[in-house]
Amino acid sequence: MGRVALVTGGSRGIGAAISTALKDAGYTVAANYAGNDEKARAFHEETGIPVYKWDVSNYEACGTGIAQVESDLGPVDVLVNNAGITRDAMFHKMTPQQWQEVINTNLTGLFNMTHHVWSGMRERSFGRVVNISSINGQKGQMGQANYSAAKAGDLGFTKALAQEGAAKNITVNAICPGYIATEMVLAVPENVLKERILPQIPVGRLGQPEEVARCVVFLASDEAGFVTGSTLSANGGQLFV
Ligand code: CAA
Fold first, then answer.
1. Structure confidence by residue, pLDDT tens digits, 60-69
2. Considering 27, 33, 52, 147, which one is annotated as catalytic?
3. Residue closest to 6 by CA, chosen among 54, 39, 57
4. So what's the pLDDT on residue 1?
5. φ and ψ at residue 29, rounded to 5 degrees
6. 137 CA distance to ligand 1 centroid (A)?
7. Ligand 1 centroid distance, CA of 75 (Å)
8. pLDDT of 118-145, one tens digit each?
């Protein structure tokens, strides 16, 4: 059995591609999901990857869920914090609930998950944490004050934790996908997507989930031990940082 990898939001969209790519690379993979039982069941049937339901915005639920994964598969060596939501609205229309839900899932979710695997990684002197941030955390995005704030926070979290993990052979990195062809992006109003977003992408197309997944496989590998605290952009040339 290969190393154990846990992917949050791992049964749909970019997360499903990450789970599958890690399995293909020899990892024993667990995919967490929050809500969509039907999609999770279909993903499990198609890939054989076990799925586990809990909400990453709930600290206790993360503890219970991770304990179950570790009892079934063994200690988590690789954590991919991929779960994320959008509640897009112009700031003057954004509600406190839209703000909180996105911060709780997309930022606090990283604390909730990573905190429960961190001690084990330190004890075993090995760990890989890969945080899926976003181009919109790097550049900010109108209609996404909540999401951009959370995703920028993910980058600060990554850089701080990378310093703490370094002496214990734990790397912590972030990936910033641009606009990838998933349900999340396809939920953007069609005119906004076609007239505003696509023209900003020099390669002239949305990215594919597998193109992000390949970045994760690299950062998760034993061979990537000298890469930590970094931000890997996969955005079709939309932003250079
Ligand atoms: N880029 C550029 N311009 C945008 C924009 C965007 N992403 N989103 C909205 N606008 C523009 C609109 O074209 C519109 O301009 P005009 O008045 O000149 O036509 C103006 O902003 C206001 O937009 P709406 O008329 O749509 O206003 P609304 O109040 O009805 O809706 C909104 C606002 C909810 C933000 C809606 O426009 C929207 O959902 N926009 C998309 C926001 C976005 O880019 N989200 C990213 C989702 S994908 C993701 O988050 C994954 C990732 O990590 C990249």
1. 999 999 999 9
2. 147
3. 54
4. 64
5. -110, 140
6. 15
7. 42
8. 999 999 999 999 999 999 999 999 999 9
Specify the pLDDT at position 44.
Answer: 98
Residues 230, 238: Cα–Cα separation, whole Å: 19
Query: What confidence tier does 93 reach under pLDDT thresholds 50, 70, 90?
Result: very high
Arithmetic mean of pLDDT, 21-30 = 98
In the chain, where the domains are located = 4-234
Give the side-chain half-sphere CA count within 13 A for 134.
26
Angle at 132 between CA 134 and CA 65, to 5 degrees: 140
Which amino acid residue places its CA nearest to atom 49 of ligand 1? 185
The DSSP bridge partners found for residue 127 are 170
Token couple for 29: 């993979």
Active site residue 147: yes
Q: Looking at domain 4-234, which of 3.40.50.2300, 3.40.50.720, 3.40.50.1820, 3.40.630.30 is its CATH number? A: 3.40.50.720
Residue 224, Cβ density class (10 Å: 0-12 exposed, 13-18 middle, ≥19 buried): middle
**What is the pTM for the complete model shown?**
0.97
**Residue list, ligand 1 pocket, CB within 6 Å:** 86, 88-90, 134-136, 141-144, 147, 179, 184-185, 188-189, 192, 196-197
Sign (positive or negative) of CA dihedral 228, 123, 28, 31: negative
* pLDDT band at residue 191 under the 50/70/90 scheme: very high
Both tokens of 21, joined, read 């790519």
Residues 6+ apart with CB under 8 A from 46: none
